[in-house]
Design a protein that fits this description.
eight-stranded antiparallel barrel; 391 residues; alpha+beta; disordered N terminus
């Protein structure tokens, strides 16, 4: 169940409850219940990319699996119409990701979360059948991680796990189907520690039933029928009704303007035009080239800009990775400083010399020379990919 569907269900319950003429008030006592729904985890793709970059890899794509089935079983005690305490077991399902890396390989991560919770639950009656509820409490969760790598990606600890205590909060709506049986719709947030030092939130939207022990039916209401009123017959001559007014329909509003999608735009700059050889500071001539690009982006609502730095194959791999990433960050910083584009819309990555433009056998030899440096010039470049819509 998606969160949007859960919100629609809550609104429908409110409408049915307000229209219902029956009355069932919350009473003190014990109860049991169970909920089933969908969990949605927050997966930090930026942190995954940063971790891979620190290990000498860049992520070409990350596929997230952030939703799964969740359920909980619980019991509680209602002290009065407004306050209760509730505890139980929850299972938030699983969430994970698969990152494709350069050099060739992949890293997959998976987390399963289950545990116990103890909450203080506040209830606010709206009608005798309908109420809203809020909860705050603690969860003691076990997070079990599984990591696998393929290709050049190797995982040191494939199965870490951790148990820790964090907070949880939630909101919900309740509708009394009978004095003993209540339908609940809830939105909850669980704060979770994974097994590799990160904290995150898992949100759950669910529906469930609550059974209350010893609930009493309300006493029947005896109604006394009043005698029919005495109506005197009086002759009335009614005037003819006036003709109905003629309604003139207002003109139809003009259709809203639609944004025109812009196809993916990719621009390649020679690194030698932007930077001196083996340097990471943009030259003045390079800034003029970037200014031409930013002028073309005026009047475009930017979605994302990806800046990828490339080096040639000369030099150690680790050094080239660091240099290509530094050049990409320099171009990103210049774009942010010279335009109104937010920094979080620009992604900078370094691809070292793993994706050359020159063909095999075109530049022969590994000894550094002026001729080899000149031959490998097409490999030293900066790719800028832009996506967005015209304003």
């Amino acid at each position: 169940m998606k969160l949007q569907r859960a919100s629609g269900t809550l609104g429908l319950l409110a409408l049915v409850a307000i229209a219902s003429p029956s009355a069932f008030a919350e009473e003190a006592g014990w109860y049991l219940g169970a909920n089933v729904g969908q969990s949605r985890a927050t997966i930090d793709d930026a942190r995954i990319s940063s971790s891979l970059l620190g290990a000498g890899f860049t992520s070409s794509s990350i596929a997230d699996n952030d939703r799964d089935r969740a359920y909980k079983v619980f019991g509680g005690y209602q002290f009065n119409r407004y306050i209760g305490v509730e505890g139980g077991y929850f299972n938030l399902g699983r969430a994970g990701f698969t990152a494709t890396t350069v050099p060739a390989g992949s890293l997959s991560g998976d987390i399963r979360v289950q545990g116990l919770n103890l909450d203080l639950v506040g209830t606010l009656p709206i009608t005798d059948r309908f109420h809203v509820l809020g909860r705050v409490g603690a969860n003691y969760a076990e997070a079990s991680d599984t990591f696998t790598g393929t290709g050049l990606v190797h995982v040191g600890n494939p199965n870490p796990s951790k148990r820790d205590t964090n907070y949880k909060v939630g909101l919900g709506l309740g509708y009394a189907l009978t004095p003993a049986l209540t339908l609940r719709a809830e939105l909850e947030r669980y704060r979770i520690d994974d097994a590799v030092g990160n904290k995150g939130d898992i949100d759950v939207a669910s529906l469930g039933l609550v059974y209350r022990f010893g609930a009493k039916s309300p006493a029947p209401v005896h109604r006394v029928m009043a005698p029919p009123p005495v109506v005197e017959r009086v002759a009335v001559i009614a005037a003819a009704p006036p003709p109905p007014p003629v309604a003139v329909a207002p003109p139809a509003p003009p259709p809203p303007a639609r944004a025109t999608p812009v196809p993916l735009k990719k621009v390649t700059f020679s690194t030698d035009a932007l930077f001196d050889f083996d340097k990471k500071v943009i030259k003045e001539h390079g800034k003029m080239s970037l200014d031409k690009l930013t002028a073309e982006l005026r009047g475009v609502n930017i979605d994302t800009i990806t800046v990828t730095g490339h080096t040639d194959r000369i030099g150690p791999h680790a050094y080239n990775v660091k240099l290509s990433a530094a050049r990409a960050e320099a171009v990103k910083a210049y774009l942010v400083g010279s335009t109104a584009i937010a920094a979080n819309k620009i992604v900078a990555v370094g691809a070292n010399g793993s994706n050359p433009v020159t063909k095999p056998g075109q530049c022969v030899g590994n000894k550094v020379s002026k001729a080899l440096i000149q031959c490998l010039e097409p490999d030293r470049r900066v790719d800028i990919e832009v996506s967005g819509t015209k304003l």
